[in-house]
């Protein structure tokens, strides 16, 4: 199964420990200064994307020495850095799993932009491939239908976040639902797995599912 990792500009303090230690294997696509951070960990990104305005001439030179494919965009553009990385990953690599790091911490407006990104028509059909990951959370997205998810060993909590109106059923969890209508986006947080897996189904829009720990 082809996996690709994307690094955007969230704070390094919220990276998972494996990333802080440079233990997550590539390929990687980095945004702006994220490329320098990867290079310092001994990881050479496959593609570097950004306007690079925040970098000095010497820093940009380092990136170009370590990355064969550097794509420069104007500072004023119609896409966020995360969207540019996601478009590159889909178009050039067509991976089955797209793990995005640095997308959740820092500015709330940036996080919301990353969370709602899968609602865009250009990304919707790829939603189930996308996962946002930080040190405490793993955020996945699902299209309508029946789904089974497995508990991540280090996570305790489970949240279901409808990103639009839908009928929802949840089972094998502490707080089940049976064909329950939800008319607007909200977070059904602090649920928990009863065993090693949970089942859920819904009929429209996109469901965000979060596994988390304190």
TrEMBL record:
It is an enzyme of class 2 (transferase). Transmembrane segments: none annotated. Its EC number is 2.7.6.2. GO terms for molecular function: ATP binding; kinase activity; thiamine binding; thiamine diphosphokinase activity. Keywords: ATP-binding, Kinase, Nucleotide-binding, Transferase. GO terms for biological process: thiamine diphosphate biosynthetic process; thiamine metabolic process. The keyword Nucleotide-binding applies. SMART domains: TPK_B1_binding. InterPro entries: Thi_PPkinase, Thiamin_PyroPKinase_B1-bd, TPK, TPK_catalytic, TPK_catalytic_sf. Residues 145-206 form the Thiamin pyrophosphokinase thiamin-binding domain. This is Thiamine diphosphokinase.
């Amino acid at each position: 199964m082809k996996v690709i990792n994307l690094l955007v500009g969230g704070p390094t303090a919220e990276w998972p420990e494996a990333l802080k230690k440079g233990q997550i294997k590539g390929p990687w696509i980095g945004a702006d200064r994220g490329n320098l951070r990867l290079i310092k960990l001994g990881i050479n990104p496959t593609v570097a994307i950004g306007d690079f305005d925040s970098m000095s001439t010497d820093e940009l030179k380092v990136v170009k020495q370590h990355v064969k494919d550097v794509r420069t965009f104007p500072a004023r553009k119609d896409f966020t850095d995360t969207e540019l990385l996601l478009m590159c990953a889909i178009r050039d690599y067509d991976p089955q799993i797209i793990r995005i790091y640095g997308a959740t911490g820092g500015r709330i407006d940036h996080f919301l932009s990353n969370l709602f990104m899968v609602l865009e028509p250009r990304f919707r059909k790829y939603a189930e491939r996308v996962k946002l990951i930080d040190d405490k959370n793993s955020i996945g997205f699902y299209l309508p239908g029946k789904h089974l998810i497995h508990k991540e060993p280090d996570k305790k909590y489970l949240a279901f976040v409808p990103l639009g109106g839908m009928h929802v059923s949840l089972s094998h969890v502490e707080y089940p639902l049976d064909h329950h209508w939800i008319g607007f986006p909200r977070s059904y947080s602090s649920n928990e797995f009863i065993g090693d897996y949970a089942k859920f189904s819904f009929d429209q829009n996109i469901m965000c599912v979060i596994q988390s720990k304190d």
